[in-house]
Automatic annotation (TrEMBL):
Keywords: Glycosyltransferase, Metal-binding, Transferase, tRNA processing, Zinc
GN (gene name): tgtA
Residues of the tRNA-guanine(15) transglycosylase-like domain: 13-340
Active site: D93
Organism from which the protein derives: Halosolutus amylolyticus
Name the UniProt record assigns to this protein: tRNA-guanine(15) transglycosylase
């Protein structure tokens, strides 16, 4: 068990947890956002991040501090917390990003970790190799070996109470991400950033991002705090949290503001294109788009950065509340509608339903069927798995009809799309209390038919009849041949 991280609530792969940061004497509630601070130029001061936005943790780059003489001296003399004037926890990056951008840096893992410790960082980072997407497998494996060596070096550096990141690389090879996760988990390091995913997000490859995270998560233990490194757009937080990410860092709030870009959970807008501000943060209540456009550059950038942060932190709170209420996947479904690439991300997430099912609570409020993707949610999969274990009499009527009348059969079970059949005694238990639209879709019917098939296949000795409300022929094709079919829709005629 990792002492620094405790899980309190889960929903799908998402979790609310407490990350204890001993050196800062702070406990950070996750999912958490770490605003990125450039020590040489801050758009919004760290003090304001803490007091106005409630930031409990931020991230800054120790390599920039290391390479800037006067800042380095002040950091060594006064410590990072005084230098930045921030009361919460501070994570530092190592220069790996600069390594990936410029090809080389002039510092080793020992040197940069010792420097991070010396300036008072609370969570330090070794110099890993951020392997970009789509490289050859040979390159990905070779660089992963180097990253693993660096993690082993990091284990031996005396870092006192400072927590240390163990980045998980492996490019776009899910099995390498899984191996990297397993190897990182086996070290005594503390926090696990999934690295080099920024190019995927810049290209809107949310499905590939999901596969990469899913691979890393398979290797990491359930108690490992996972950081999606470089992910700062609120549009994709719900998706990433549902996959099991706990920490995000945002440079986007400031970088986007510099180009007059306005963040929303449905995507990014340019200030020039806005006639209304679709947000109720203090910035948007006090200004019209014309007011903002009329501001001098520096002030406009600061106001936009403040809005971007408000929108970002609000989404983190919304996600936490969704986990607590047990409707995180309904939130992901909403976000998936913002952009076709997000929908790809959600569909990829559902490819990993079996992985999510392991942490998904057995009981929640109410399952809302809100899109045909809902038919692939972990709860449906779990119900189908449960069908293998239910005791079935010699003859059984499965019916969508309201009546429990199973005359001529030993028993009668209900059938509800998307779950399929279940004994009436389970009617009041999650997820079978689901709210499903009356105008049901083919995916829900197909999933119900698959449930029927699973039950029938698990009980070859029993006799089954299925009374359905006009299921189309291609759905009925999924039901095994031996099942007697009764169309309830015919009765209404
Ligand atoms: Zn706003």
């Amino acid at each position: 068990m990792r002492e620094c991280f405790e899980l309190r609530e889960t929903d799908a792969g998402g979790r609310i947890g407490d990350l204890t940061v001993p050196r800062a004497d702070v406990t950070v509630e996750t999912p958490a956002l770490l605003p990125v601070i450039n020590p040489n130029l801050d758009t919004i001061s760290p003090r304001r991040l803490a007091e106005e936005f409630g930031a409990e943790i931020l991230i800054t780059n120790s390599y920039i501090i290391y390479g800037t003489d006067d800042v380095r001296e002040r950091a060594l003399e006064d410590g990072l917390h005084d230098l930045l004037d921030f009361p919460g926890a501070i994570m530092t990056d190592s220069g790996s990003f600069q390594l990936s951008e410029y090809g080389e840096i002039d510092v080793t893992t020992e040197e940069i970790l010792e420097f991070q410790h010396a300036i008072g960082s609370d969570i330090g980072t070794p110099v890993d190799i951020p392997t970009p997407p789509d490289v050859s497998r040979e390159q990905a494996e070779r660089e992963l070996d180097t990253t693993q060596e660096r993690l082993e070096i990091a284990e031996d550096v005396d870092t006192g109470e400072m927590l240390v990141n163990a980045p998980v690389q492996g490019s776009t090879y899910p099995d390498l991400r899984e191996r990297a996760g397993r190897e990182a988990d086996a070290t005594d390091l503390d926090v696990f950033p999934v690295g080099a995913v920024v190019p995927l997000m810049n290209d809107y490859r949310y499905d590939d991002m999901v596969d990469v995270v899913a691979g890393a998560k398979r290797g990491l233990g359930a108690d490992a705090p996972v950081h999606l490194f470089g992910a700062g757009h609120p549009m994709m937080f719900a998706l990433a949290v549902a996959m099991g990410c706990d920490l995000f860092d945002s440079a986007a709030y400031a970088l986007y503001a510099r180009d007059d870009r306005y963040l929303t959970v449905r995507g990014t807008r340019h200030l020039d294109d806005l006639e209304y501000l679709p947000c109720s943060c203090p910035v948007c209540l006090e200004h019209s788009p014309d007011d903002l456009r009329a501001l001098p550059d520096r002030e406009r950038e600061e106001e936009l950065a403040a809005h971007n942060l408000h929108a970002t932190f609000a989404e983190i709170r919304r996600i936490k509340e969704a986990i607590r209420a047990g409707n995180l996947l309904e939130l992901v479904e909403q976000r998936a509608r913002a952009h076709p690439a997000m929908l790809d991300g959600y569909r990829a997430l559902l490819d990993h339903a079996a992985q999510l099912e392991r942490t998904d609570p057995v009981s929640k409020g109410s399952f809302f069927y809100t899109s045909h993707e809902s038919a692939r949610r972990p709860e449906v999969l779990r119900h189908h798995q449960r069908l293998d274990r239910l005791a079935v009499p010699d003859s059984l009527l499965l019916t969508e009809g309201r009546s429990a009348d199973g005359s001529g059969f030993d028993d009668s079970w209900r059938v509800e799309p998307p779950f399929g059949p279940f004994p009436r005694a389970l009617s009041k238990s999650y997820p079978l209390t689901a709210e499903v639209p009356d105008r049901t879709d083919r995916s829900a019917l197909a999933a119900a038919a698959d449930g029927v098939a699973r039950l029938v296949d698990a009980n070859p000795e029993s006799e089954f009849a299925l009374a359905h409300r006009g299921w189309p022929a291609d759905v009925l094709d999924r039901v095994p041949d031996g099942v007697a079919l009764i169309d309830l829709a015919d009765d209404r005629a």
